[in-house]
Amino acid sequence: MKLPTVMIVDDDEAIRETVxxxxxxxxxxxxxxxxxxxxxxxxxxxxxxxxxxxxxMMPRLDGRGVMAALAADPTLATIPVIAFSAYAGxxxxxxxxxxxxxxxxxxxxxxxxxxxxxx
Length: 119
Hints:
Blueprint: E1 5-9, H1 13-25, E2 29-33, H2 36-45, E3 51-55, H3 63-72, E4 81-85, E5 98-101, H4 106-115
Parallel strand pairs: 1-2, 1-3, 3-4, 4-5
């Protein structure tokens, strides 16, 4: 059984590639974006992912900016987001957005992805 597509949006290439490898080994399809601008461009031109793993602190367009753009577009607003960040402070995230703290354990990551309501 083919698992859904997960979009990974993170400006750290090592994290992006590691998370992609883990998800692909678990059977997920993966789309990669290095920042929020690239993610939004891909969302307009590629098939919609079932879930977005979204770094909150990125250059050009951060995770909160991406979530605001998703919420403003009815065709994208229903895509669930799991936010992740190394920042230890509090975030004001949209209701229903799960937050994972970096470094995230691979088991925790896989559990979060598998338990998202879209997957």
